[in-house]
Amino acid sequence: MIADAASLTEVISAFAAGSGPVAVDAERASGYRYGQRAYLVQLRREGAGTALIDPVACPDLSGLGAALAGAEWDLHAATQDLPCLREIGMVPTRLFDTELAGRLAGFPRVGLGAMVEGVLGYVLEKGHSAVDWSTRPLPEPWLRYAALDVELLVDLRDALEKELERQGKLEWALQEFDAIATAPPAEPRKDPWRRTSGMHKVRRRRQLGVVRELWETRDRIAQRRDVSPGKVLSDAAIVEAALSLPANVHALAALNGFGHRMGRRQLEQWQAAVDRAKALPDTALPQPGQPVAGPPPPRAWADKDPAAAARLSSARAGVTALAEQLGLPQENLVAPDTVRRICWEPPQSADTDSMESALTGYGARPWQVALVTPVLVKALSSKGS
Length: 385
Prior knowledge:
InterPro entries: 3'-5'_exonuclease_dom, Exo_C, HRDC-like_sf, HRDC_dom, HRDC_dom_sf, RNase_D-like, RNaseH-like_sf, RNaseH_sf
CATH topology of the largest domain: Nucleotidyltransferase, domain 5
Number of domains: 3
Strand order of the largest sheet: 3-2-1-4-5
CATH architecture of the largest domain: 2-Layer Sandwich
Strand content: 5-15%
Number of strands: 5
Helix content: 40-55%
Protein name: Ribonuclease D
Pfam family, one: HRDC
GO molecular function, one term: 3'-5' exonuclease activity
Number of helices: 19
Oligomer: single chain
């Protein structure tokens, strides 16, 4: 594993001198460490071989990113790896996503192992996908597993390119890859505490305040200790405390998720968070539910706007039929949220130009606009706009 500046310089030189696409992968320590940083970066390129780089020992890989700037990067499920690669200075200008290519080509299973086996006929050694990649030193079997993830990625890319071309879908894929490569970094999620598992049970504002306070306390501790928040306190325990509103440490210790393995000091810090939420004035408590940007949940449409519900039903049926005809998942044909928004607030005129403009405004790529526009025009025309 490359873990010092001198070795990294050699790798940069070798990969800059290589030819063709570069296979790229990253391993994170999800469930073990705080955040989604990369703990191993794997690369392979014709003429350079394979390199496994330790981004803990070499946290700035911008030199490597710059050396590969002109190359196509081949990744599997690119959107999962790009954020952690961006953090260490590796940002592609062109990419080929073998998972997305598999979806567009209509493969029923698009995991890397299934794709390599189904397309190339090789069975990848598996078994270490969920390990703690922050472990040092990394065991030899883990490194072998990681190297195999890029061993055949370019071969897979080449085979999928031919299949997409055969199906007449290559241009679609290239537009999708360009959209991924040029997308800006995702904005931080607003009120991330609302994604606590089991939140649907919590309805009162005071209880919501407890969830928020416990979640934020847990997040600070997890970040300080560099561990996954779930290892500090479970979501289930947070919800349990919010529903119970314990009066003291003794009551808290009796709840599921607290208690037998938790020391007095830990219990006191969680009870202090509960007490802070209980002491908040009503004006400082969170509102139930999140402000919804866009249309309401489709299940409410029949009551709120029957005409919109009819449009959505017709549009969904048309999109599903077209996706089946084209042999690809309907969510890759057009984002379901885009269909909902157009059906809830349709263009003033249900004509081709207006629909194309609406789809483009919601981020649909040209290939999607061309295919979906007639379906949505028909759905909105037949059900009234």
